[in-house]
Amino acid sequence: MADIAVYPSLRGRTVLVTGGGSGIGAAIVRRFAEQGARVGFLDVNEPASIALAAELGPSVRFELCDLRDIPALRAAVTRIADALGPVTILVNNAAHDERHRIEDVTPEYWDDRYAVNLRHQFFAAQAVAPGMKAAGGGTIINLGSNSWMQGRGGMPAYTSAKSAVAGLTRALARDLGEANIRVCAVVPGWIMTERQITHHLTPEGEADLMSGQCLKRKLVPDDIARPILFFASDEAAACTSQSYVIDGGWV
Prior knowledge:
- The chain has 251 residues and is of the alpha/beta class.
- It has helices at 23-34, 46-56, 70-84, 107-135, 147-150, 156-176, 194-199, 203-212, 222-232; strands at residues 14-18, 38-43, 60-64, 89-92, 138-143, 181-188, 243-246.
- Helix content is 47%, strand content 15%.
- The chain is globular and about 50 Å long.
């Protein structure tokens, strides 16, 4: 870990990461584990998640969970807290930017996209809040997206759900602040996960990205994971109720 900062306040903490089996989530899980934290993560991708947990060792615990199922989410949070200790850091990372046309969206599809991209963030926060209060405080980090700031088309349910992360963050920060629980949002730009490269990156898209960003390089999952360590640590003890854009200077 000689190439990144070490945060002593993260050692021994119990961290919960949603969508931690691949992409940005896996980078977050890996970096917290390197800091000496105990990390539980939830995901629906069982093979990738099992492999990641096995690689990182006994301080990392995977729970198979479809976050659209709120009772299952609550039960998984309880199992992680029982195994690793009360969760004092929550990273609401899970999301899915499935493209969709306006004319194809049904009420059921709309509700499903909100369940995948927004609703679970509130219920995960609700599930960990009592343990954080009992511990004297904690940190919740919600992941948004700069797609709505850019006015990106082709996925209105996703972009509107992600815009709501900013409002949820400020509301939770206000309600939980008296218990010394900080709530921030991290807002990524276009991060080159394996899924994005495989399904969405095109020469035209890359040219648009390089034209729009101030930094003329592709951003990778670690560009999000490493700042999240800072916001979770005591170095960010006064950071709450804000959204922090990490997109290479695109919006």
